[in-house]
Specification:
By secondary structure, the protein is α+β, with helices and mostly antiparallel strands. The protein has 3 helices and 11 strands; from the N terminus they run H-H-E-E-E-E-E-E-E-E-E-E-E-H. It has 3 domains: 30 residues; 124 residues, at5g01610, DUF538 DOMAIN (Roll); 34 residues. The radius of gyration is 28 Å and the shape is globular. This is Transmembrane protein.
Length: 195
């Protein structure tokens, strides 16, 4: 009888431990990258709809794999490479690669995304030399993403942008041209008035 009781207790213990392990494994497999973003104080819509393949480790390092590169429209347009990676901590992603933002007609690599104060309703995208702010509500839900070829983009990073002295020279030339055009226009107006 005691032998039967020990076997029953052992079986019960094995079944209990197995069910706990299986349920915890199922719970982990059901979490999505969107849940991971949300639990780190970031909006789910930072990544496009339909991400299924991702990895996330205890150090905060994540990788996302999309079926293909794509663009999504927010206040500005965002480009997502097929592979996206970065380091996730509460309210911020740094060391980011695989996301680019369009400003005017230029594309810039996004290096960091952060939410400093959630109640401010703002999210910041750092492209290396400047930080752009957007409405946090724009990123509440994942957006549809239109497939594109990565080579279609003319990306600018810190190394490809004109240096400050070069930029100042271009700006000086533009100002000189504008002044010359205004002076010439004024002279033509004066000449036509006298005629």
């Amino acid at each position: 009888m005691t032998h039967q009781l020990n076997i029953n207790n052992t079986l019960f213990f094995i079944i209990l431990v197995s069910s706990i392990l299986i349920s915890s494994r199922c719970a982990n497999s059901e979490s999505t990258i969107y849940d991971v973003l949300k639990s780190h104080g970031l909006p789910k819509g930072l990544l496009p709809k339909g991400v299924k393949d991702f990895s996330f480790d205890d150090s905060g390092r994540f990788e996302v794999h999309l079926d293909e590169a794509c663009n999504a429209k927010f206040e500005n347009e965002l480009h997502y490479d097929q592979n996206i990676s970065g380091n996730l901590s509460y309210g911020e992603i740094n060391g980011l690669s695989g996301i680019s933002a369009q400003d005017l007609f230029l594309w810039f690599d996004v290096k960091e995304i952060r939410v400093d104060v959630p109640s401010s309703g703002l999210i910041y995208f750092d492209v290396g030399f400047v930080s752009k702010q957007f409405s946090l509500s724009s990123f509440e839900t994942p957006r549809d993403c239109l497939a594109v070829q990565s080579v279609d983009l003319q990306l600018y990073s810190d190394s490809t942008l004109p240096t400050q002295p070069a930029y100042n020279k271009v700006l000086s030339v533009c100002v000189c041209v504008c002044v010359c055009v205004c002076v010439c226009q004024h002279m033509v107006c004066d000449f036509t008035k006298k005629s």
